[in-house]
Amino acid sequence: MVKPSIEQIADRITDAIMEHRLPPGSKLAEDKLAGAFNVSRTKIRQAFILLANEGLVTLHPNRGAFVTSPTTEQTRDIFKTRRLIEPEIIRDVIARASSQDIARLRKHLEEEAKARRTDDRRRVIRLSGEFHLLLAELAGNQVINKLMTELCPLTCLIIALYDGPKIPACPEDEHTQIIDAIEANDSATAIKLMKRHLSHIENELNIDAYEERDIHWESIYS
Amino acid sequence: MVKPSIEQIADRITDAIMEHRLPPGSKLAEDKLAGAFNVSRTKIRQAFILLANEGLVTLHPNRGAFVTSPTTEQTRDIFKTRRLIEPEIIRDVIARASSQDIARLRKHLEEEAKARRTDDRRRVIRLSGEFHLLLAELAGNQVINKLMTELCPLTCLIIALYDGPKIPACPEDEHTQIIDAIEANDSATAIKLMKRHLSHIENELNIDAYEERDIHWESIYS
DNA sequence: GTGTTTAAGATTGCGAACAATTTATACAAC
DNA sequence: GTTGTATAAATTGTTCGCAATCTTAAACAC
């Protein structure tokens, strides 16, 4: 049995967070994870450093690692950034994507639809996020791609925190419409749909219910 | 003597890279750094993980950590991303910045000018980068701010690799003009100037081999 | 019953020691 | 002079143990 690398450990934890198996606020005990992955605590700590740098995990000194609970400010910043970046991704995809790439996107849509039909909610959430990751990959900008690989899991975390009773992460047909517009080289429409899509997700969140999560102690005791 | 945190170690190394005291390709030996910072190798390795995640350092398994030598593709992606993001930063700064914030920017321009007058080239390079970081900070978007704190040192690295014979990282007056336009709430002009500014930097680069120098750790981290 | 103090237990932070791997050196062969 | 190989040295990768800190629980006072 070969031991996993730090990145592999971080990826496994990221997957668990994206699928909501590790809800926001979960304690990540070093010993438990070291046992689960069959490695020493050192490697777990190193994986935590990676995850903390991406914002998925928050480290409290001497107290341990916890799955981040994004604040409303972070939520706003994340969606604002995605609305800035993903239109650019679409422009690049339209400029660069081959027919094979479009086929990959279509295949991904199939996977999403299948997961939806079988009511595999966790899989739906992850695949919805990975649709945006696939687009970022096809755009061919490594900097933006890396940024998206951080923002997508964070968005999943936000959905876990704030999502309404029956909201599926991303409405399926919106993804399909975006790909239709991309395939038609209609960047204006694709960008408009993407922006609307992101706004849909953000607006479906009921942030008000959880406003107590980001309390400004300074303003209270000033 | 209090021991530095992982982040402080990473920041010190980042500073050294930004000031071109650690040129691209430099080997970062764990023992040497552990001695320089008076900590165990464990913390140095953790700092490396942070720096590698930001792209400043490249880890070669069993061979060690090296200051990254950005490729031409990475250079293109970094500048493309900055041209996308920094106009948005300017919009936000114009929308949010107080007169105090403008004063901070003016003060920074003073610092830059002073470093230029005293021919402190390393300081000029770093301050030029930090001007963009200050703008990002004032924009108030933590996601974008974090991205810029990664892209700026990388840009310094690129300048170290590819800069021409006598190009000062950023022409001084361009920064001043951008602030003038921001203070006048003229976002169109400020954005145009910023894009032109970034293009200037990118276009001044010439693709040449870099010269590897010997590094004296004691003098750098005394 | 509520709240405080104290002690035991558990967890994290750190560094030293050991193992695995690479790099440097010496030397022989061609 | 170069190439190849074997050995030694140096460096990285990992584990383990100990100290510091936090958490829990029990004992105690009110």
Written description of the protein model:
Two copies of one chain form a homodimer. The first copy, chain A, has 222 residues and is mainly alpha-helical. Chain A folds into two domains: 6-67, Orthogonal Bundle (Arc Repressor Mutant, subunit A), CATH 1.10.10; 72-208, Four Helix Bundle (Hemerythrin (Met), subunit A) (Up-down Bundle), CATH 1.20.120. In chain A, 69% of the residues lie in helices and 5% in strands. Chain A is built from ten helices and three strands; from the N terminus they run αβααββααααααα. Chain A has a three-stranded antiparallel sheet with strand order 1-3-2. In chain A, strand 2 (57-60) and strand 3 form a beta hairpin. The longest helix of chain A is centred in the middle third of the chain and has 25 residues, at 72-96. Chain A is globular and about 55 Å long. The N and C termini of chain A lie far apart (56 Å). In chain A, 36% of the residues are buried. Chain A binds chain B through residues 6, 42, 45-46, 49-50, 53-54, 73-74, 77-78, 80-81, 84-85, 88, 141-144, 146-147, 151, and chain B through 6, 42, 45-46, 49-50, 53-55, 73-74, 77-78, 80-81, 84-85, 88, 141-144, 147, 151. The structure holds a DNA duplex (30 and 30 nucleotides).
What is the element layout, followed by pairings?
2 copies of one chain form a homodimer.
Chain A lengths: L5 H13 L8 E2 L1 H8 L3 H14 L2 E4 L3 E4 L4 H25 L2 H19 L3 H19 L2 H21 L9 H12 L3 H18 L12 H4 L2
Helix pairs in contact in A: 1-3, 1-7, 2-3, 4-6, 4-7, 4-9, 5-6, 5-8, 6-7, 8-9
Chain A binds a DNA duplex (30 and 30 nucleotides) through helix 3.
